[in-house]
Write a structure and sequence with these properties.
Residues 145-165 are annotated as: Disordered. This is HSP20 family protein. This protein has a single domain (9-141), classed as Immunoglobulin-like (Sandwich). It contains one helix and nine strands, in the order αβββββββββ. It has one helix at 12-26; strands at 49-54, 57-63, 72-77, 80-87, 106-113, 123-128, 131-136, 146-147, 163-164.
Amino acid sequence: MTERRNPFEGVTDLFSELARVRSTGVHGGPEHALTPAERTHASAWVPATDILARGEDLVIRVELAGVDPEDVELSFSHGVLTVSGARPQDASEDGVEFLVRERFYGAFRRTITLPEGTEPDQIHAEFDDGLVEVTVSNGVSPADSTRIALTDKSSGRTSRTVGRG
């Protein structure tokens, strides 16, 4: 049986972050946020991520301060790398009232679409001091795209950057 790939899979991270902001920002803060048991992908927080080229390798850095490496799961399916897990909430402190609380706890999930043709044996990951670094060997390919002219409807001008890019 063939499994169809969801073309909107990468977009779900944006919706996860918007749902998290809505639940914590609009309703009065983290005390009104969902409990870890209530969290789904739609409400999981999305860790900060950098994607860069190091020579011919594609490097993905995911910031997971306060997360135990044992609580992190990496998977690769249908060209999509998924980093997921959970960050436990700090033990409650008696007599403490948070004035500002910006760190997120509970389930997290980040999906990144890797270059077409990426094979699992090209992917290597390390965890060091709260930072997951995933390296995709030979993951950077020369630009094989064609730039498309963009016309500004208000002025009628067309961009000059047309050609191979």
